[in-house]
Design brief:
about 25% helix; flavoprotein; FAD/NAD-binding_dom; FAD; 22 strands; alpha/beta; Ferredoxin--NADP reductase; elongated
Length: about 325
């Protein structure tokens, strides 16, 4: 027999994990489906060493520690967690929805989509020598373990929150950190920009990377050019970290037999996180509504809204929500 769940959550990043926890609080039979080999989404796969500042109660928390704490949180309830199982199809059936992964088919009365920005691919550095340096391990797009760059001269390329976070993250361990951005102004949060300017990170703006090569002693020779000028300069570093953001790929969602209304590629939702398809809700960075802010903290707020709406609408006979202080007592 095909297993049937009350709620199926597609996407095991921090927001999806919190939704699964909250579904456990409401005693819903829940499965959590993640396409990667482990839970945590982009935070775990790309930024495990990143310091996250927008989680209430934590002045600062590393990405990997946040995901580990959420795994502990999930362990309080008998949830079904399936990793390395991308959802290849979602379609409506008489009893709700049929969900297909490479491992098989399950059914669910309701669905919460928490896939963030979809499959993510780093925006590449398109200059001569980049591919060769990446193969040699001197150019990277994420830092799973900052100890890999201990004592190194590191160039971080980018001007958003992630680039600033990476530069500040590496400052205590690297020999030196240079942050190069093509504009004078950074796109990061004002507080993070203040921390950057107060740090020992060398800020070089407005500059572009024009080429990359290795030196005879194995270092990296970065050719840079000031924007609006022709004269080139050279930076000698050990490693280059490119932080230009990511491109999103929604081809998996778009291939499902069930389509939800979209606005600029994001899923449009109501205040309850309901989509245009009854029984399907969406939360996290992949959704849009007036005033939406793509923060982890925002996703954490959206998760209980979706779960409570599902329980009140589709399972009105279930007991009312318990308080968080009841857990463990």
């Amino acid at each position: 027999m095909t297993e049937t769940y009350d709620i199926s959550i597609i996407g095991g990043g921090p927001t999806g994990m919190f939704a699964a926890f909250y579904a456990g609080m409401r005693k819903a039979k829940t499965q959590l489906l993640e396409s990667l080999e482990d839970l945590g989404g982009q935070v775990n796969a790309l930024y495990p060493e990143k310091t996250i500042l927008d989680v209430a109660g934590f002045p600062a928390v590393l990405g990997r520690d946040l995901v580990a704490a959420q795994r502990q949180q999930l362990a309080q309830f008998p949830l079904t967690i399936k990793t390395n199982q991308p959802v290849t199809n979602l379609k409506r059936v008489a009893a709700g929805f049929e969900i297909t992964t490479p491992a098989g088919t399950t059914r669910s009365k309701t669905v919460i989509i928490a896939v963030g920005n979809g499959a993510f691919t780093p925006r590449p550095l398109n200059v001569a020598g980049a591919d060769v340096l990446q193969q040699a391990g001197h150019l990277r797009y994420s830092v799973p373990d900052k100890a890999q760059l201990r004592g190194k001269r590191v160039l971080v390329a980018g001007g958003g929150d992630s680039a600033i976070d990476q530069a500040l993250m590496l400052e205590p361990v690297a020999q030196s950190v240079t942050l190069l951005h093509r504009r004078d102004q950074f796109r990061g949060l004002e507080h993070m920009v203040d921390l950057l300017h107060a740090s020992s990170v060398r800020v070089q703006t407005p500059y572009l990377i024009r080429g990359l090569a290795t030196t005879p002693d194995g270092a990296v020779d970065v050719t840079v050019k000031r924007v609006g000028e022709q004269e080139e300069d050279h930076l000698i570093v050990d490693d280059v970290l490119v932080s230009y953001g990511f491109t999103s790929d929604y081809h998996v969602i778009e291939g499902w037999d069930l389509n939800v209304a979209r606005e600029r590629r994001l899923i449009a939702v109501e205040p309850t996180m309901a989509t245009s398809e009854p029984g399907v809700y969406a939360i996290g960075d992949g959704v849009t509504y007036p005033g939406k802010q793509p923060l982890i903290a925002t996703g954490y707020g959206e998760a209980p809204l979706a779960v409570h709406s599902i329980m009140d609408t589709y399972f009105p006979d279930r007991r009312s929500p318990i308080h968080s202080t009841s857990i463990g007592h």
